[in-house]
Amino acid sequence: MERTFVMVKPDGVQRGLVGEIIGRFERKGLQIVALKMMRITPELAARHYAEHREKPFFKGLVEYITSGPVVAMILEGKDCVGVVREMMGATDPRKAAPGTIRGSFGMDIGRNVIHGSDSRESAAREIALFFTESEICEYSLNLASWIY
Ligand code: RTP
Ligand code: MG
């Protein structure tokens, strides 16, 4: 099993897309193992997006991601990192395939609704950045035993 870090960005929270986005992942069959609403500090934003520090959009990106609360989560499942990236769609929502999260809900690269780790290595780094061990729940999904 693989884990990935996912975040509904401030525009997704403000637009009331949290339930829709989490629902898509749940219905897909990915397991939520950690979930919280939080406000990202400029320091955390800079660490999270360290790879983009020299990019022209960095300042705007930090302002955007710190502009309101986000919903952070860890999802688990087979090939979870790639599956989530596919479901998110391309970085630029106008180019994202119809039916993907960004393709369905976004119009601007600077307001692209959701973040998901781009590799297993990024996932491990971002999970450690956003969650403590005690915030992660280990449990097995056994649907039948919850219905009957
Ligand atoms: P993310 O890290 O947020 O999941 O997005 P991503 O992997 O699809 O894209 P990435 O290249 O890592 O870029 C990080 C975020 O920076 C903003 N961005 N703006 N104005 C621009 O040209 C530009 N390019 C990137 C986006 O919000 C992107 O999600
Ligand atoms: Mg990225």
TrEMBL record:
Identification of the protein by name: Nucleoside diphosphate kinase
Function: (Microbial infection) Catalyzes the phosphorylation of dZDP to dZTP, when the bacterium is infected by a phage that produces the substrate for the synthesis of dZTP (2- amino-2'-deoxyadenosine 5'-triphosphate), which is then used by the phage as a DNA polymerase substrate.
One Gene Ontology biological process: UTP biosynthetic process
Domain Nucleoside diphosphate kinase-like span(s) in chain numbering: 1-138
Entry-linked InterPro entries: NDK-like_dom, NDK-like_dom_sf, Nucleoside_diP_kinase
Requisite cofactors: Mg(2+)
GO cellular component, one term: cytoplasm
PROSITE patterns the UniProt entry points to: NDPK_LIKE
GO MF terms, alphabetically ordered: ATP binding; metal ion binding; nucleoside diphosphate kinase activity
One Pfam family from the record: NDK
HAMAP family tied to this protein: NDP_kinase
Species name: Thermacetogenium phaeum (strain ATCC BAA-254 / DSM 26808 / PB)
